[in-house]
Amino acid sequence: MPTHEVSNQPPPLHDYDPLAQDRALLDALRREGAAWAEEDVAALGRRSASREAIAWGFQANENPPRLKTHDRFGHRIDEVDFHPAWHELMRLSVASGIHSGPWREPRDGAHVARAAKMLLMSQCEFGHGCPISMTYSAFPALQRQPDLLEQWAPHIVSLTYDPRSLPVGQKLGALIGMGMTEKQGGSDVRANTTKAVKGDDGAYAITGHKWFMSAPMCDAFLVLAQAPRGLSCFLLPRWFDERKNGLHLQRLKDKLGNRSNASSEVEFDGARAWLVGEEGRGVHAILEMVNHTRLDCVIGSCGMMRQALVQALHHCAHRTAFGKRLVEQPLMRRVLADLAIESEASTALMMRLARAYDRRDDEAPFRRIATAVAKYWICKRASPFAVEALECLGGNGYVEESIMPRIYREAPLNSIWEGSGNVICLDVLRALGKEPQARDALVAELREARGSDRRYDAALDDAEARFAEPEEAGARRLVESLALALEASLLLRHAPRAVADGFCATRLAGDHGYAFGSLPAGVDVDAILARAWPS
Q: What angle separates helix 436-446 from helix 454-468, to the nearest 10 degrees?
């Protein structure tokens, strides 16, 4: 219409370099031992921020997967149909080695480089990261069973995405899923009622029900079941002896977010599976998988926060209100700067944690406790972060085209997946009480920054006093204090002074309100925003 002129709207945000724009991520990539991967990570970042890849994310969420239990002749097939955009996202992540890079080419910094890639792809579309993450996480669990690893490893580390439903020997690449959750148990996996009976050929027949089994299109699944000697871990393939295994998809979950990804409810009807580790030691066998997926929960939350921040910064840089661009308005600048501080602190902790996964033996105690601490706090922060960033866009952020509603719906997931908040806090208490090496490693890391800021020193004294005599009722407060101390320690050692000072003033000294944006006087907002969005 000739009378319809669009003005005061930001241009679409695509075809930019997200690694170059994210100084916190770039600095951490170099600092934590993966400078060698910078070019590769940057290339993936540019691809993930392209107009085409961003469109894939929208298309995959607008066209969720569909369950096909039977073919048109009435034969049971138990297949899931995905939109072509989903397959493009999977193809890109698999080709980039996010599902297996550190296992395919182990070297110093491999987990750090992979974490940076995972963060960038999470900004593009988070749902497809579920099978990517579980495949990455399953590998260390399978290392407990060398015969299975020898059979499956070449398919897992392949850089070819092969979505065909075929026996693994006929495929160019394989993905691994997981099924632990039962409706009567949830996080209490020892309430598991699925049964496993060993056959003459050494395989087990698995019979039971899983309330949540993620990514049912994967080629095999790590599952827990009760064997004669107790709860045990098994690798259950979709195909067994060239035939479909006894794995029946009952329905796909209708979820709050994570719409592009299929999460299923399944029945195992004598499904054939192979033992991983020892009978009765299932929780121990699957623990490494759980820890690696918890790392990915942290990475995914960091990615969502960064994307939400970028969208807010981009919008405010182009939108005008009351005679100025929003980014020039003093109150809005404080909101954006506060969000930027939170995003950088989370990214710094996430990348430091990834380095601990590279140093598998030397930093095992630190990795043990820091994974739980970071998983609890960073995943908790994603939801209020998404709300505040969405509000920066106003009504423009409330429409699906903005990507903000998708981030908002997705944000709570990582706090639930692989242990909700209380479960994680109890895990921290267990580590502090029963694993003195983990406690000592955490203290050593925190004390690296002692003496650099009086507010930090006071917070560190408080945190150490809390875990000297931990109690269950105060576990959330304890874990929060540890997480904040870890983030502050990293920022004081590695971030610009403006960022570290803003963090210590608000998160440690308590000079803040109850919402993002209530930064105190004296915080260098200009420097923080210039770092968060250099363009």
A: 170
Helix (H, G, I), strand (E, B) or coil at 71: coil
Residues 6+ apart with CB under 8 A from 120: 18, 19, 41, 44, 45, 48, 49, 303
Beta-carbon-side half-sphere exposure of residue 530 (alpha carbons within 13 Å): 6
Please tell me the distance from the alpha carbon of residue 322 to that of residue 26, in angstroms, as a whole number: 36
First to last CA, the chain: 34
Give the number of C-alpha atoms closer than 13 A to the C-alpha of residue 528, restricted to the C-beta side: 29
Rounded distance between C-alpha atoms, residue 37 and residue 231, angstroms: 41
Give the burial class of 20: count Cβ atoms within 10 A of its Cβ; 0-12 exposed, 13-18 middle, 19 or more buried.
middle
Mean pLDDT for 494-502 is 98
What pLDDT shows up at residue 1?
A: 65
How remote is the C-alpha of 266 from its chain's centroid? 24
- Tens-place pLDDT, residues 392-420: 999 999 999 999 999 999 999 999 988 89
Region of 15 (left: φ > 0; alpha: ψ -120 to 50; beta: rest) is: left
Q: Please write down the HEC assignment for all residues of 287-300.
A: HHHHHHHHHHHHHH
**Strand ranges for 291-356 from DSSP E:** 320-321, 324-325
Which residues, other chains included, contact 31 with Cβ-Cβ below 8 Å and sequence gap of 6+? 351, 494
- 203 token code pair: 């395989």
pLDDT (tens digit, 9 = 90+) per residue, 302-331?
A: 999 999 999 999 999 999 999 999 999 999
Which residues contact residue 18 at a Cβ distance below 8 angstroms, ignoring those fewer than 6 apart? Answer: 45, 46, 48, 49, 120, 123, 310
Is residue 2 scored above 80 in pLDDT?
no
| Burial class of 71 by CB neighbour count within 10 A (0 to 12, 13 to 18, 19+) | exposed
Tokens of 376: 């609890």
Mean pLDDT over residues 336-342, rounded? 98
Provide φ and ψ at 270, rounded to 5°: 65, 30
Decide: pTM greater than 0.85.
Answer: yes
Separation in Å, CA 382 to CA 59, 101, 309, 345:
24, 27, 11, 12
CB burial of 379-403 (b: ≥16 within 10 Å; e: otherwise) equals bbbbbebbbbbbbbbeebbeeeebb
Note whether 204 and 234 are within 8 A (CB): yes
Q: How far is CA 452 from CA 170, 318, 476, 483, in A?
A: 58, 38, 26, 18
Q: What share of the chain is helix, strand, coil (3-state, %, to 5)?
A: 55, 15, 30
Task: Give percent of the chain with pLDDT exceeding 70.
Answer: 100
